[in-house]
């Protein structure tokens, strides 16, 4: 069976709609995606709900840690886990 992907259609609203703060807040909190604000037909701002913001920050932290781990591997600061476990077993007679 084919895997079903969730596709979000970006929400784009004109800046004049920001007057209705309750509706904008509801829109931001109902969607995990960003809400794009346009001014004179061009992109001006992006807003999002707190949950989406926290998820984006979390993923940025994950990507940063992965990049750091990749760098440590390339610098030779990391060792193979199987070899490390084998060495520890030999050292402690396990």
Structure description:
The chain is an alpha+beta fold. The protein folds into 2 domains: 8-48, 3-Layer(aba) Sandwich (YefM-like fold), CATH 3.40.1620; 50-94. It is built from 3 helices and 3 strands. A 3-stranded mixed beta sheet has the order 1-2-3, with no helix packed on it. A hairpin with a 2-residue loop joins β2 and β3 (42-47). The protein is elongated and about 70 Å long. The two termini are 46 Å apart. The mean pLDDT is 89.
Would you kindly provide a brief summary of this structure?
With 94 residues, this protein is of the alpha+beta class. Helix content is 50%, strand content 16%. The protein folds into two domains: 8-48, YefM-like fold, CATH 3.40.1620; 50-94.
Q: Give the distance, in angstroms, between the N- and C-terminal Cα atoms.
A: 46 Å
* Class inferred from helices and paired strands: alpha+beta
Major sheet characteristics: 3 strands, mixed
Mean pLDDT: 89
Count all strands and give the number.
3
Q: Strand sequence of the main sheet, in spatial order?
A: 1-2-3
Portion of residues in beta strands equals 15-25%
Order of helices and strands: EHEEHH
What multimeric state do the chains show?
Answer: single chain
């Amino acid at each position: 069976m084919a895997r079903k992907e969730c596709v979000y259609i970006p929400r784009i609203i004109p800046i004049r709609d920001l007057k209705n703060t309750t509706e904008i807040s509801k829109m931001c909190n109902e969607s995990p995606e960003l809400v794009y604000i346009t001014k004179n037909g061009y992109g001006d701002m992006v807003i999002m709900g707190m949950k989406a913001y926290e998820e984006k920050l979390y993923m940025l932290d994950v990507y940063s840690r992965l990049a750091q781990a990749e760098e440590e591997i390339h610098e030779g600061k990391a060792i193979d886990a199987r070899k490390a476990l084998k060495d520890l077993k030999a050292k402690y007679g396990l």
